[in-house]
Amino acid sequence: MLWIALLVNAAMFVLELGAGMRSGSASLLADAIDFLGDAANYGLSLWVLAMALSWRARAALIKGASMLAFGVFVIGRVAWGAWQGIPPEPFTMGGVGLLALAANLGVAVLLYAYREGDANMRGVWLCTRNDALGNLAVMGAALGVLGTGTAWPDLVVAAIMAGLAISGGWSVVRQARQELAGTAAGAQLQGY
């Protein structure tokens, strides 16, 4: 399942990067970068899947940090877009957002059973959930841009996506740190 998720996310990164650059959409670019981060995270999850909980928790720390970094990057892109004030092309935003939603819903169905697993698998599930919510928001932003003729709906959605990434990243980091503390305490007890 993680291999499928990895391939879907890598393909969507390439598609959304091109569409985001062509349309001038901050929310599509944010979503493209998120797809790239998710593809890397799925690859990392595959690498540590059979390893001990402490290694999976360390991998989850990396995932959480990447989600936090994504959120900070998007906040910077929103500030840049607000300064520029140029509205993106809404039809590309909406069409690509719909395609990205279909891709993420397919991955979410595959990963649903793992949403309450260890920090590593929970991080995979949170990434997918956040992506599907982000895709709905991108499509809403496309309608907002079409209706208002301004960049603000796109920028607001990109800021919300940044908030989701920061919140999800912090949750994964917190759980991974708890798992690492638990494995360290267990190792100390076994040493006596």
Task: Provide a descriptive summary of the structure in words.
There is one protein chain. The protein has helices at about 1-25, 25-50, 55-85, 90-110, 120-150, 150-190. With about 190 residues, the protein is mainly α. The chain has one domain: Alpha-lytic protease prodomain-like (Up-down Bundle), CATH 1.20.1510. The protein starts with a helix and ends with a helix. About 50% of the residues are buried.
Features:
192 residues; mainly alpha; Alpha-lytic protease prodomain-like; 6 helices; elongated; Cation_efflux_TMD_sf; transmembrane helix; Cation transporter; membrane; Cation_efflux_TM
CATH class assignment: Mainly Alpha
Overall mean pLDDT stands at 82
Series of secondary-structure elements, N-terminal to C-terminal: HHHHHH
Note the overall shape: elongated
Give me the secondary-structure category: mainly alpha
User: What ranges have pLDDT less than 50 throughout 5 or more consecutive residues?
Assistant: none
Round the Cα radius of gyration to an integer and report it. 18 Å
Q: Percentage of helical residues?
A: over 70%
Oligomer: single chain
Q: What's the helix count?
A: 6
Total count of strands? 0
* N→C terminal distance: 40 Å
Query: How would a textbook summarize the main sheet?
Result: none
> Strand percentage, roughly?
under 5%
Membrane topology: Multi-pass membrane protein
Organism: Acidovorax kalamii
Subcellular location: Membrane
Pfam family, one: Cation_efflux
